[in-house]
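Narrative of activities, Objective 1.

The group set out to show that a structural description can be obtained from nothing but a protein's sequence at a throughput compatible with the screening campaign. Below is one input-output pair from the validation batch, recorded exactly as produced.
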Amino acid sequence: MKYLLMMHTPRAGWKEAGIGTWPPADIKAHIEFMHDFNKRLKDQGTFVDAQGLDMPQEARVVRAKADGSPAVTDGPFAEAKEFLAGFWVIDVDTTEQAYEIAAQASAAPGKGGVPLNMPIEVRQVMSAPPQDV
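Output recorded for this entry:
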C-alpha cells in the first residue's frame, strides 16, 4: 500500500524563528537527517519519492477559466496556520508501518538538535478502479 506523508510546518514565526534563523550547523544536521532518512527508506525498499517544497508565498492556485485557459491567483490561503513543507511517498505493507515512518520523520532535528516533532499527515494513496478495455 502506498502512503503520502505530508510534513506540515507552522507558518507563524517561520521567518523570525524558522530554519532560516538556525545556526548553519543545525541546518546542516537537519538536512543530513533528511538525506539519511531517505537512504534508510530506500534500503528498506519502502521509498517511492520525497520532495521539499518552496515557501508558501511562492504557491499559486490555478483554476480553469471557461475557455480552459489557466486563472492563476496567489495561494493557497493567507490565513493558513501551517503550510506543506515537503512530502514522502512510501510503499509499505501496513498502516502501522506508515505511522512508524511518519513518527521518525516527525523527530527530525531542529535548532540545537532538539527534535521538531512536526505534524506529519498520513494518507493512503488510492488506486483507481480497473478500466474496462
